[in-house]
Amino acid sequence: MTRVRVGVVGAGVVGLSTAVCIAEALPFCSVTVLAEKFSPDTTSDGAAGILFANSFPDIPLERQRRWFKDSLDHLLSIAQSEQASEAGVLLTSGWQVFKEVPIEKKPFWSDLVIGFQLLTQDELGQLFPDHKFGQAFTTVKCECVPYLPWLEKRLRKAGGNMEQRKVRSLQELSHSYDVIVNCSGLGSKTLVGDDGMYPIRGQVLKMEAPWLKNFIRDGDGKTYIYPGIHSATVGGTRQEEDWRLEVDEGDREDMLARCIRLEPSLCKAKVLREWVGLRPGRKNPRVERDLVQLQGRQVPVVHNYGHGGSGVGIAWGTSMDALGLVKQCLHDMHLQAKL
Ligand SMILES: Cc1cc2nc3c(=O)[nH]c(=O)nc-3n(C[C@H](O)[C@H](O)[C@H](O)COP(=O)(O)OP(=O)(O)OC[C@H]3O[C@@H](n4cnc5c(N)ncnc54)[C@H](O)[C@@H]3O)c2cc1C
Ligand SMILES: O=C([O-])CC(=O)C(=O)O
């Protein structure tokens, strides 16, 4: 039996989720993940991993809700299973607070997370006297340092392979794969020449603060404290078009001061690690299929990249869409007939 060869470029949370979805749903495919960097060296590895949805201007709300819901459901089922600690997926509760009352008091994801409530004025006064508005909810935190190896293991179990390699052009893959799936994140800027891709620099601290049990996020998206399994992720910055990967001392002092204002006890916490990552910024994620002329042959390419600051939060949902697109490619190529 001839197997359909699927090459997935990228081993961050998006690439591995997509590879697992394809390998498990389409056992007649042989899935290979090709990536320059694997865990723990991807952008995904440094993310706080909070499931929280940002909204994208040109994606229908129903599709965004589905991306978030599919991801939340998938991770909730892991969080409630015996796999939770190995996979690094846990439930977390806390608050998002605002200095000014936001236009959208109940965001589109408010009925998808658990127990979403608005804080009363009394509660705000007790907990966050400098803020005018607050939301309380329970969601999932997915820590990629354990989660990506857990996905790699799941991929191998489904028959998938991994190869460390920088792909300089999709041409290189045209003879080795029947379908190419592009999950290269910010790498898509050069790999497929996408000028809409840009870095959004994020600097965070990993701090030892085991007494903190609840997350706190300022609604401006720049200041947050996310307690996790071994450390709290404390941040952050959102600097567009900034490619610097080194730690900036000014950013560190500024974010620490902002976080200590929200949570004074952090001034006693030890800094375990500092980290900088570049979010794969794009106006909207690109989850679509294309036919590319490669070395005289039309090769189907499925794109799944450009998740910005939401990659962990929507990766499983966009991967389910990418799986649907791969199925459409196979249908069009009549490759199912190879079975
Ligand atoms: C400080 C910070 C905090 C964050 N917190 C959160 C959070 O709490 N929740 C959330 O949902 N998101 C968060 N994010 C965003 C999240 O990290 C990203 O959206 C997500 O990691 C994107 O995943 P990805 O798989 O697309 O990209 P990456 O993780 O960057 O993976 C890209 C992969 O493609 C490979 N690649 C690229 N180009 C090539 C090439 N030419 N050849 C071969 N391989 C290639 C890379 O080596 C890598 O394996 C945060 C980001 C930052 C920076
Ligand atoms: O926005 C947040 O709370 C965390 C996050 O996703 C990011 O820094 O990209």
TrEMBL record:
<feature type="binding site">
    <location>
        <position position="224"/>
    </location>
    <ligand>
        <name>D-dopa</name>
    </ligand>
</feature>
<dbReference type="InterPro" id="IPR006076">
    <property type="entry name" value="FAD-dep_OxRdtase"/>
</dbReference>
<feature type="binding site">
    <location>
        <position position="309"/>
    </location>
    <ligand>
        <name>D-dopa</name>
    </ligand>
</feature>
<feature type="domain" description="FAD dependent oxidoreductase">
    <location>
        <begin position="6"/>
        <end position="318"/>
    </location>
</feature>
<dbReference type="Pfam" id="PF01266">
    <property type="entry name" value="DAO"/>
</dbReference>
<feature type="binding site">
    <location>
        <position position="279"/>
    </location>
    <ligand>
        <name>D-dopa</name>
    </ligand>
</feature>
<dbReference type="InterPro" id="IPR023209">
    <property type="entry name" value="DAO"/>
</dbReference>
<keyword id="KW-0285">Flavoprotein</keyword>
<keyword id="KW-0274">FAD</keyword>
<keyword id="KW-0560">Oxidoreductase</keyword>
<feature type="binding site">
    <location>
        <position position="167"/>
    </location>
    <ligand>
        <name>FAD</name>
    </ligand>
</feature>
<dbReference type="GO" id="GO:0006533">
    <property type="term" value="P:L-aspartate catabolic process"/>
</dbReference>
<protein>
    <recommendedName>
        <fullName>D-aspartate oxidase</fullName>
        <ecNumber>1.4.3.1</ecNumber>
    </recommendedName>
</protein>
<dbReference type="GO" id="GO:0005782">
    <property type="term" value="C:peroxisomal matrix"/>
</dbReference>
<dbReference type="GO" id="GO:0019478">
    <property type="term" value="P:D-amino acid catabolic process"/>
</dbReference>
<dbReference type="GO" id="GO:0071949">
    <property type="term" value="F:FAD binding"/>
</dbReference>
<feature type="binding site">
    <location>
        <begin position="43"/>
        <end position="44"/>
    </location>
    <ligand>
        <name>FAD</name>
    </ligand>
</feature>
<comment type="function">
    <text>Selectively catalyzes the oxidative deamination of acidic amino acids. Suppresses the level of D-aspartate in the brain, an amino acid that can act as an agonist for glutamate receptors. Protects the organism from the toxicity of D-amino acids. May also function in the intestine.</text>
</comment>
<dbReference type="GO" id="GO:0008445">
    <property type="term" value="F:D-aspartate oxidase activity"/>
</dbReference>
<comment type="similarity">
    <text>Belongs to the DAMOX/DASOX family.</text>
</comment>
